[in-house]
Model the fold of this input.
Amino acid sequence: MFSLKEYITPSSLEEAYELLNKNKNNVILGGLLWLKMGNKNYNMGIDLSKLGLDTIIETEPQIEVGCMTTLRQIETSSVLNTCFDGIVSASVKNIVGVQFRNCATVGGSVYSRFGFSDLLTALLALDCYVHMHKGGIIPLEKFIKMPYEKDILIKIIIKKDGSRASYKSCRMTATDFPILAVALSRCNSSWKIAVGARPNKAALAAKASKLLPENPTKEDIASACETVTSELHFGTNLRGSAEYRKELAKVLVKRGVEEICR
Amino acid sequence: MKVVSQSIDKLDAMALVTGKPVYTNDIAPQNCLIVKVLRSPHAYAKILSIKTDTALKVPGIACILTYKDVPNKRFTMAGQSYPEPSPYDRLILDQYVRYVGDPVAIVAGDSEKAVQKALKLIKAEYEVFKPILDPEEAIDNNTVIHTEEDYHVNFDIGNDVKRNICCSGGFESGNVDEAFEKCDVIVDEVYHTKANNQAMMETFITYTHMDYNGRLNIVSSTQIPFHVRRIAARALDIPKAKVRVIKPRIGGGFGAKQTVVSELFPAIVTLKTGKPAKMIFDRYETFAASTSRHEMKIRAKVGSDKDGNIKAIHITTLSNTGAYGEHGPTTVGLSGHKTMPLYNKAGAFKFEFQVVYTNTMSAGAFRGYGATQGAFALESAINELAAKLNMDPTILRQKNLLEEGEVLTAYHGETLRSCTLNSCINKGKELIKWDEKYPYKRISDHKVRAVGTAITMQGSGIAGIDIASVQIRLNDDGYYTLLVGATDMGTGCDTILGQMAAECLECDMDKIVVNGVDTDQSPYDTGSYASSTTYVTGMSVIKACKKLRDQMLTEASKILKVEKDTLEFDGQKIYNEEKSITLDKLAQELVVGDGNYLMASASHSSPYSPPPFMAGFVEIELDTETGQITVIDYFGIVDCGTPINPKLARIQVEGGIAQGIGMALCEDITYTELGKMKNNSFMQYKIPSRRDVGNIKVAFESSYEPTGPFGAKSIGEVVINTPPPAVAHAVYNAAGVNIRSLPITSEKILKGIMAKR
Amino acid sequence: MQIKCYINNRLFNEVIEPDMLLIDFLRHTGFTSVKRGCDTANCGLCTVWVNEKTVLSCSVLAASVNGKHITTLEGVEDEAIAFGKFVADEGAEQCGYCSPGFIMSVLSMKRELNDPTEEEIKHYLSGNLCRCTGYMGQLRAIKKFLQQGKDGA
Done:
């Protein structure tokens, strides 16, 4: 059982950041879904809900999603349902249920960088950045590999680069974690393939992505699929073996590419 | 019939849908001590020392109990009639811990926080032994799981505890070896079913307190109040007369609550402290420290001539009872005795079994109780036989099916008095459009739709053992109180029993008050398990009502001063051609002056356990590139005799099929190499959501069971058995792959498909 | 710490621990329709509304509802009865333990979705587990309930 000595809703990001770094047991509260399952004794829980960070804002060059935006907002956002063939919205639709997604926040999901994250996989295939209070704007691909620092994720930024995109996952039951998640995008002639739930954190298959021309042939696709399984590491857990995940990766990548080219 | 066979609303329906406080934790007093248990981190160990002094200093801690503080009287937690077939291999707390989760210490305190803190401060030292986790390695292992000298079995169950054998035995009728020699086609395969969690929504919850008579009151979410009374008295070493058990509304059981799981911990705290105490199992404990379905490895050998006449069936079952023997000796029998009789024409049957101890969580009761495991094995084997014979499996089955009037040699020699299984199969084929869809249809380059089928039987109560008593009283306003000892766990049995009483007494349901279980008030009933309530308790309702009617006529004849024989009762009044008295008036007169308050009670036990039947038909869509399957439609066609309440019967079928689909597709308790349960939560152990079960459709082909109330048999359990073999069959029809180990995951399917490429 | 919030439109002014969960706060305050079914935010039994949105009360700090409106099944009893009759008519309440959370989700769905398809209903309610019914009776009840709303309008 987790415990919390103090709960506070700061009125500015500066204040929140200061509080966060005052004590090593101070923590930013996201949707609480994960935090409350742990056994940690926290000193102070910092709730950012008074800072107006729960919005999805579309501007000419980009879409900005505040850290306190819920997964349900993402799911129902007309912008995110339209841009990038709707993959950002699609990626969260199978996560447990509506009341769960009404609690879970984008900041919590992205900051935590969980291996099974559907959202992280989808975002990774796009031109996406995180805006950290101290660390500034960091490409998501880099952020995923960074250590967990005591910083505040303010928002994520997705560049509207006109990418076509596709999101695919396989699950044991409809609302379970994915056995494997794959997101792809094509911007002009450049492809990105992101594979999540391997079961490690989502990662880009850079070599495989490069093997795909704008309109790939069957052979191009097949060789990209093979490369995905050789360049990324796949592991075994309750939901599937590394071998099975590799097979799924090939199939889902192939289907994603075909969908985008259709 | 006016009330029976009607879809009456459950009596408690509106209280439940408006969230009224009716469950154990809703009615527990605020001042209960909070009870929690320190659990073993080791799969097998001896406790060398436990230090509790620091923990006891936590403010608010009322008591901490270790194995030194509990009565040294072994018992079984299995809720079964005395003498229980399950071995006495438990103590409330034992110096030896035999699975990860076995209780080490009981802590009680004012608040959850205090108790949690104290739990962390208890220091136990263990001598750790090498555990047995694989049931196939259990027998004659160097590790012996039960070494205690006071281990006890009540009668011969083929127990050899020093070899880790909880129970063993067998049965043969005809000469199987000879019969197989004459067979043209034989299927001989091993099928593996896994431990599953019952996963009822309400976890195990109990509160206890001492009443003004100095008696221990146990209020608990249980299917077996009377067994709890007996087991608690033994385990706590107090007289049964000092124990009272009350069952409020229950948030589901499915067999999990046929075992004494949570009751003894708060009970001993209340005995030691004199204070009310409450124990709520969290979901982790509910998964990892209760009982599961028995994992079984079943070898099924079936032989037929080339025309598909089945000649011999041989079933060999290895059952894993885990660390303790709860329900071990009894579940295993169903894997043979409630599967083979379906093919009664075979003539030669053999059944051999062993039930072994391992250092995993104890297995126990779960809907289907061994028949489910056996059905996966034998029905899969029958489907494989059909494939070998190149015969439609529905036709193979119908060729060999048991029929009314036959003596079922593999089912304890019982005569089959009611059975419409043949019609169930016909109906199912028609509903799913079998002849059009069997075996498969290709939808696209990687999508195939296919159908599959299985049939099954269960029992209705335990013949000669289950006993149910009810009492019915005529109250002063001409309404009745029906006291039952059967435990409604959400199934609606209070309503169903009330319907039977209303039918017998020719009144509306609002004239019948049904009172749930309080062992001080309710007449004895073994409890609600083994599909017994409708069939066994139902008959005692009929008997009691008959007696009450007779008493009413007697009293009316005295008041009216006419011969009793001339009187009739129509539900409203008692009358003959000349005189008449209304029920209200009669009831009123009986509670004044020298009246005679009327109550009738009756007990019933049946020498038979008539089997209900079901045919299951599934249509799936298979993605041949990922191995993923989607259930499209599931048809369950059931012969439960007369459905007493058709809508509640239908929900039983739908719910049972959904649980069976979970067992077929995703439910699988697994352990680490050190014996720790990996999936002890709904996050890791997936039960089907409403997006996973497809469309479940139900039809009834009702027979009439002459030994049952209004022709009824049971329905609660038979409905869970068909999905695993039916889905496996559909996968075979879609991809040519036989999956013989549950659950049927996409990974196993794809592996099979790739091996064939 | 002190919080002020409305539960079913009644003002509550309570002193709580900072780490108290909303489910425990509600049950402690007497709203025992709210049930705990798991520890991992998977079952949906504890579903209530905070400012008209369904949340898992097991995963919300009581402290965070300061100033907000919470609705439990007790607060929508008329609607619970109206829908509950359809559920009872199917026998689909069964053990009833998942009913409060389930009904809170159904009533929220009715507000949020206009004329949902069967698939949309299943999606919207997939976070509410039920082990008794196999979900079909619940689905029949929902469809009749929504149909009645349409007929009435």
In short: Chain C has five helices and five strands. The CA atoms of residues 108 and 130 of chain C lie 18 Å apart. The beta strands of chain C are 2-7, 10-15, 47-50, 53-56, 69-71.
